[in-house]
């Protein structure tokens, strides 16, 4: 298929339809409202469901209801809105329903700003809502990858019966890049008859299904948490995705970075190379599961003297990097999070300070 | 090889569309492209801008401090961004609205009375197409016939306005050639 | 001799955890009878609230989802929008629906979502132990209003049927009670009608049911029935507030 030039937000919207998701509930918030605007036009063309909910709180439960009934469903929002959906995310994870949540991150905390940020790493990877649950978190670095990850997200959500989050940022949502919609990324919806509340007559069964998260019996609750943990462990074994840039060199410094920030780092690495300085970049594409072993291996390469996590935050992913490097190399941090993205020149200056 | 073009003007001058059309044509020519919206504190205060990146390889940083070229549609845009342009680049000046010049010796100025040409072609709303055509002709970044095709595609739903925009396009090219 | 009384098919065999004298059991039965009579058990999805009815899914024999506090109408919206062929009902108490879930119920009603809401109003929080509800009567004692509800501080009790009937979108809004046999018979008719409207794909339907909570009111079941009759019904007037024919 020919490439088309699309805004990230619109490309994510189209990718959902191409992935076979024709149900969308959302509440407007900058900088991702184009997703809703696009789908408000596009979903009626495919007999889909579009509904603007009264709040992100309600939308979270519309998603829960639709996912519990066994249908593919997606919502998109941005940071403050995702905070409001975090309650539902906890319930959906606990009740083991597949759903796709997209967070086009803006600066926080509070109302923050509308410019790109990576300040929601903790919220996305460590919880946000209450209890022992995880989302599977995919972090695209551009519009094409956002499309591919959105399509994969439905497959992964169903494989694990767990919510999947696309963690983008305002830049990815707002920029236009050429995209190609690959049909091979579309999966057939899984059979949900053994758990979904899709109606006994739909599945030809006399046995009713329950979608719930209340387990008052301690053993039952513990067991549910063990079931969830087994899924997270399986994600760690099977779903880790990452990329290492310029690692076929004797790099002295390893940058860890993801999303939009990683593209700036990539340019900085190219510019440093022109000066004869080799620096590599480790870019996790899955933030949960985090590529624990791979980042360790990249950090302990003999030529590598230090690691620096560069983020549009005040230091969030760096905690995972430190955890994984296990003290084998010093782990530094540089970040800005007002909405202005650090320039390649700034990164070069910071990295040179480590050499 | 990477080229970055900053388009800047008042909101409503259609510069985001001009930029998109340039990116679209470059994409059709097989280049890697990115269209990066104004996404900084400067976006307040009446100046709208965006940057198009055209490259023969994967585009890294979407943060472009020093673009190769600038298309300035109003005076604040020229005053704000002319100093950022890399030496040797084109600074396009819409002289219908900008009475001053860039005061730089190391760039190439392309001065076109965009609004006047657009009005003559049929509507001041085609000013962005005049500017795009003149800049494309001067820079040689994309094939002009291909660019025209892209414009026709963009306006396919409003076929009525295509002939006027084609007139504006040709007039823009001519103005660039004569300058 | 033929069988004169039996358990509706849409109820399970489980014993309920409800207190002696609580009227949840009556309403459960009325809902199950409506489901049976309309023959929709195999395509019905119920939504349990947070509150005393949190485990309602144990007592009904149909698909069920369990919501967070107050969010049942949003979940029902999600289900009904993606599967309009399913019969969806929420079963909510007064804290759940009229306090924390006020936004969700108002907007679901106003959108005319074609599901059925059963709203149990017993003027108190039950499950959490007798705290003040938005429906608690003036001067009525609650654990968080030990001297009785002070309306100067907390306002007057919310009359949800009256409020929802002000919405312009077509709907069926009715207030019933289950304090006396005649009331139970009327409530039964109302609940069945609420499901019928859904089966016909007609409108949002809302059945408020004035109920008792002897435990948290600190009364015997009989005292509770009398108190509800004397204190609640004059303020919460029974009857149809809105019908789709209006």
Please supply descriptive tags for the structure shown above.
heterotrimer; A: 355 residues; alpha/beta; Rossmann fold; five-stranded mixed beta sheet; 15 strands; 19% strand; B: 179 residues; Pyruvate-ferredoxin Oxidoreductase, domain 3; six-stranded mixed beta sheet; 6 strands; 39% helix
Describe this entry's structure for a reader.
The complex is a heterotrimer of chains A (355), B (179) and C (246). Chain A is an alpha/beta fold. Chain A has two domains: 4-238, Thiamin diphosphate (ThDP)-binding fold, Pyr/PP domains (Rossmann fold), CATH 3.40.50; 243-352, Rossmann fold. Helices cover 42% and strands 19% of the residues of chain A. Chain A has 13 helices and 15 strands. Chain A has helices at residues 8-18, 33-45, 56-68, 79-94, 121-126, 143-160, 170-174, 200-203, 218-238, 259-274, 292-299, 317-325, 344-352; strands at residues 4-7, 23-26, 49-52, 74-77, 99-105, 136-138, 163-169, 176-179, 210-211, 242-245, 253-256, 279-284, 286-288, 306-311, 331-335. Chain B has a six-stranded mixed beta sheet, with helices on both faces. Residues 40-44 of chain B have low confidence and may be disordered. Chain C has one domain (24-242): 3-Layer(aba) Sandwich (Rossmann fold). Chain C has nine helices and seven strands. Chains in contact: A-B, A-C. At the A-C interface, helix 3, helix 4, helix 8 and strand 9 of A face strand 1, strand 2, helix 2 and helix 4 of C.
Fold topology:
The complex is a heterotrimer of chains A (355), B (179) and C (246).
Chain A lengths: L3 E4 H11 L4 E4 L6 H13 L3 E4 L3 H13 L5 E4 L1 H16 L4 E7 L15 H6 L9 E3 L4 H18 L2 E7 H5 L1 E4 L20 H4 L6 E2 L6 H21 L3 E4 L7 E4 L2 H16 L4 E6 L1 E3 L3 H8 L6 E6 L5 H9 L5 E5 L8 H9 L3
Parallel strand pairs in A: 2-3, 4-5, 5-7, 6-7, 11-12, 11-14, 14-15
Antiparallel strand pairs in A: 1-8, 6-13, 10-12
Helix pairs in contact in A: 1-2, 1-6, 3-4, 10-13, 11-12
Chain B lengths: L1 E9 L4 H14 L3 E6 L9 E9 L13 E4 L2 H7 L8 E5 L13 E5 L1 H8 L5 H13 L4 H11 L7 H17 L1
Parallel strand pairs in B: 1-4, 4-5, 5-6
Antiparallel strand pairs in B: 1-3, 2-3
Helix pairs in contact in B: 1-4, 1-5, 3-4, 3-6, 4-6
Chain C lengths: L23 H15 L5 E5 L14 E4 L5 H11 L4 E7 H7 L1 H10 L4 E6 L29 H4 L5 H6 L5 E7 L3 H19 L4 E7 L3 H4 L3 H12 L6 E4 L4
Parallel strand pairs in C: 1-2, 1-3, 3-4, 4-6, 5-6
Antiparallel strand pairs in C: 5-7
Helix pairs in contact in C: 1-7, 3-4
